[in-house]
Amino acid sequence: MESSKDGYPWQVTEHDPGAGGQVGTTGISKIVVDTAIDTVAAAIGGAAPPLAPWVAGGATFIKAMGPRLYAHQQINLDTMMGQARLSSGMEFEDFTATVENDPERLLSFVAACDAARRTALDEKIKALGRAVGDLARDDALVDESAIWIDLFSQIEAPHVRLVLALFEMDPEYPGQGYARLWNRSELRGRLGLSATVNILLNTLISVGLLREIPYEELTPHDRARWGVSGGSKYRPVYTKGPLANEFLERLQIPTDGSWLAQRQGAGATGPAAS
Questions:
Q1: 3-state secondary structure 133-199
Q2: Are strands 210-213 and 237-240 parallel, antiparallel or unpaired?
Q3: Other Cβ atoms within 10 Å of 8 Cβ, number
Q4: CA distance 90 to 137
Q5: 3-class secondary-structure state, position 92
Q6: pLDDT tens-digit series, residues 42-95
Q7: Which residue has the higher pLDDT, 29 or 129?
């Protein structure tokens, strides 16, 4: 079988023998994409007459997006598998044999492929690949890698921006080691979100990237600096959770703000890049 420049076989298409038996192949991706596009296009075709311009143009637009979406998914999977190869240090045949013969590894691999296909966050794709490589190369890392794959599957760029905010220091006391504390309203303003910030907060708390600080843990300095009142007037404040450092390390995103600046310079969309 011919190999790519990264040393693993080229992915098959739906026309290649045995494509249906491979997990996460571009052939499978294309079939899923084409089916979804046909379904949506058919639904648009039944729209009311006043929507005629949108119906005609919309169906054409959706059909035209198919190859682009297919190419996006193919690039993402190639990137993930390239990182898996580097992380595992294994030959492709050994990698596939290890993954396909272990149900736990196989399920985590499928989850990683699915998450990689559905994201535009390059750091997430690469982190998924490195976790897949760890999953394959070491029995002792199977459970931990599976947990990180599940965690990365739940996050996108807004989650990363929120976690990075938790690493900021108090600007009123530079160099003195006082962390900036955030309440819900301040985080909502930082990210440019409405009440949907609650979804991010709940997700980040559930995976150990964010922690709500009980009033009793706040120092007198923190209470005075951030105007925090106790009792029924207490508005929760947040700090980074126990996995926040490792999370950014695995994504290879620094805490100094350079990642946000780079995305802004590259024209990334979203409140933090505007």
A1: HHHHHCHHHHHHHHHHHHHHHCCCHHHHHHHHHCCCECCCCCCCCCECCEEHHHHHHHHCCCCCHHH
A2: antiparallel
A3: 19
A4: 7
A5: helix
A6: 555 555 566 666 667 777 887 888 888 889 999 999 999 999 999 999 999 999
A7: 129
